[in-house]
Amino acid sequence: MQTIPVWQVDAFSERNFGGNPAAVCALTDWLPDNELLKMAQQHNQSETAFFVPTKGGFELRWFTTRNEVNLCGHATLATAHVIFNHLDYPDARIHFDTLSGRLTVSREGDWLTLDFPAGVTVEQSPPAELLKALGVSHYVHARKGRAWLIELASREDVEAVAPDIDAMIPVEHKVTITAKGSGQYDFVSRFFSPGEAVWEDPVTGSAHTMLIPYWSEKLGKTQMLARQVSARGGDVRCELQGKRVLMSGTAVTWMQGNILLR
After folding, report:
1. How many helices (H) and strands (E) does the chain have?
2. Does residue 47 carry a catalytic annotation?
3. How does pLDDT run across 14-33, given as a tens digit for each residue?
4. Where are the domains of the chain?
5. Do domains 2-107+251-261 and 122-242 have the same CATH topology?
6. What's the whole-model pTM score?
């Protein structure tokens, strides 16, 4: 029997039941991919993160309940939270080697900052079937990168979207809808990825890699505060630095224990 430490963390939140939950598993060596996937399915979270220590930091991988993905922001934040707070990591910066290259997370007080590559998007017209599935009849702009990015006229329009998830799956399974924010928030967003068995993701770091350069150009500023207006919701401090984006948030542990793998 193998004992594997595991934590469940609410990322991009200062309290439980907010932000985006992720399971985090500490491994000493990599298990077969099919076992990692089965573990992710058992956890039944949008993402399960697995990490292995290396000489220069950690190797990090992310799995949904369907497959491995090449980038996940909230599970990276959750993993850094575990390493800093539960494994007593002494440095203020963690380096992760991932399928998206080297990613860095730094700590300042309770806030953790992800240093990710900026997501490139190009102007493109979304399929009519996608707009119908989203229930969107009018939009301001649309771009395509690692997912669709569709700007709507207002925060209220973003909050009112009630997509037909079954209709989205055969058309396009990754889309973020966004709008200019109000009050303290520069922009708001929501993210849907039913093709990955994530009907609506509560707070999505990978989507913000596209949103940050998009809104930076539109608003003429490099530092912004964003709100993902899902049911759980979460705040993301955003900064554009050339071809990199910085995404800062807090995290809180919900549960910890051990996996008894037989």
Report:
1. 6, 18
2. yes
3. 999 999 999 999 999 999 99
4. 2-107+251-261, 122-242
5. yes
6. 0.94
Report residue 97 CA to chain centroid gap.
Answer: 17
- Round to whole Å and give the CA distance between 9 and 254: 5
CATH topology of domain 2-107+251-261: Diaminopimelate Epimerase; Chain A, domain 1 (3.10.310)
Chain centre distance of CA 95: 18
Structure tokens at 74: 């909230």
Asked: is 122-242 a CATH 3.10.310.10 domain? The reply is: yes
Q: What digits encode the pLDDT tens for the residues 198-244?
A: 789 999 999 999 999 999 999 999 999 999 999 999 999 999 999 99
* From 47, 151, 172, 200, the catalytic residue: 47
CA angle 33, 74, 147 (to 5 degrees): 80
Q: Which amino acid is at 180?
A: K
The β-bridge relationship of strands 57-63 and 93-98 is parallel
Q: Which residues in the chain belong to E strands, given as ranges?
A: 2-11, 20-26, 48-54, 57-63, 68-69, 93-98, 101-108, 111-117, 122-123, 141-144, 148-151, 175-180, 187-193, 198-201, 223-228, 234-241, 244-249, 251-261
> How buried is residue 179: exposed, middle or buried, by Cβ count under 10 Å (0-12/13-18/19+)?
buried
